[in-house]
Amino acid sequence: MKKKVERFFCEYSTPRMLVVKSRRIGILYRLYQMFAFFWILWYVILRRDHQTTDNILSSVTTKVKGIGLTNTSELGEQIWDVADYIIPSQEDSSFFLMTNMILTPNQTLSKCAEYPTLKSICTSDMNCTKGFKDPRGNGVQTGRCVDFSDSVKTCEVLAWCPVEKKVKPPNPALLADAENFTIFIKNNIQFTKFNFKKRNILPNMSSSYLANCVFNRNTDPNCPIFRIKDIFEEAREDFQTMAVYGGIMAVQIQWDCDLDIDSCAPQYSFRRIDKKDPESSETPVHNLRFAKYYKNSDGKDTRTLIKGYGIRLDVLVYGKAKKYSFFTTIINVGALLSLVRVVNYFFDCRISHMEGYSEKKYKYLDEPEPIRVNRDHFDNTCLIIVHRCRENMP
After folding, report:
1. Burial, 358: exposed, middle or buried (Cβ in 10 Å; 0-12, 13-18, 19+)?
2. What is the 3-state secondary structure (H, E, C) of 254-274?
3. What is the DSSP letter of 123?
4. pTM for the whole structure
5. Which of 58, 59, 68, 330 is placed for a possible disulfide with 80 were both Cys, Cβ 3.0 to 4.6 Å?
6. CA quadruple 231, 233, 238, 240: dihedral positive or negative?
7. How do residues 329-387 score in pLDDT, each as one tens digit?
8. 91 to each of 61, 64, 171, 180, 258, how far by Cα in Å?
9. What is the CA radius of gyration of the chain?
10. Which residue in 225, 274, 269 sits closest to 251, CA to CA?
C-alpha cells in the first residue's frame, strides 16, 4: 500500500506513441473513427443540436359568432346571441358555450315550499328548524311545514321562489344549432431570449380572407376561425350527444419555430379532456347557473334562473423556438469528440495481450543525479580561459 501511494505521488506519466502493424486492427480503428465522425455530423448538424432553445410566452383571446333559436314553454320563442350563450363574456384562454338549459322563470324573493329532499321532507313543523340553511338547498327554513304537492310536504324556505326543479336537461339539446357557430382565436406569442414575436394571424392574411375563411385540415390549415362542428369531428366526438350534458374540449396550438430558416407557423389539434371513465356509469356533466334580472309590473325584483349545460373550450398553447448558438455548438462537438478518445482505450485493451506490448508501451526513467561542480576547479578553469583570451588580443 505504501509503495502504491509513493508511486502515485512520485511518478509522472506521459503518452508514448506505439505503432502496431496489423491490418485487422487498423481497419477496425478507421471504421470506428468514421462512425464517430458521422455520428457527430448527424447529432449536431442534422438534429440541429447546434441550436439553443427558448420556451414560449403566449396570450389568447377568442370571439364566438352565431345565432341560436329556442322555443320553450317557459319563454316561448327566443333568439340567443353571443351575449346570451357565452358565460362569462370574457375569460383568459377559455370560454363556456351554453348548448342546453333548464329554465326557472319569474322567481321572486318570497316564501315557498323547498324542493323535496331527505332534509326538507316533513310531516309537521317539528321537523323544520327556523334559520337552518341546507348547503344543497335553495334558501333559509322558516320553521313551517307546508304542502309542496298533494302528496308531499316540505319545509318552507325564504328564497327565490318558485325554487328550481331537479330534472334532466332536454334531449336533444335546445341550442343544437351551436354546432354551426364559429370561433375566432387570436394567439400572440413571444420568445424573449431571441426577442421574437408573432401571432397566428399570418402576414399574408388580409381582412377579406379572414371574413370568409374557415379552418380545414386539408384546404386551409392556417385559418384561425373554427367551426364548432369541425372541432368535434377532428376530435372524433359527436357534438349533439355532448351538447345535452356538456363537456370540456381543448384546442391545442403548437409552435415549433426554427428561426434560422424563418420557419414558424402554428399547428392546430383538438381533443376532449373530460373523457368518460369506462368503469363508471356516470355521464360527464359540465354546467353552471346564472340569472337574468328584471322588474315585474309591480316593480318587484324578478329573475329567470338558468341552469346552463355547455361546452367549455380551453385554448392550450405549447411551443419552443430554436436558433444557432456558437456556444452550444462547441459544447456538443466537444462532448462528442470525446467519444473518439474511447477508441484508444478500447484498442489498447484489445492489443494488451500481444507479446512485448508492455515492454514497448511503458518505459521507466529514473530521475538523473544532479551534477556536482568543484568550485575551485571551476574558478581555475575560468582564469585560464580569461588569460588566453587576453594573449590573443591584438
Report:
1. exposed
2. EEEEECCCCECCEEEEEEECC
3. S
4. 0.72
5. 68
6. positive
7. 777 677 666 766 776 777 777 666 666 666 666 666 565 555 555 556 555 666 666 56
8. 8, 12, 28, 22, 31
9. 42
10. 269
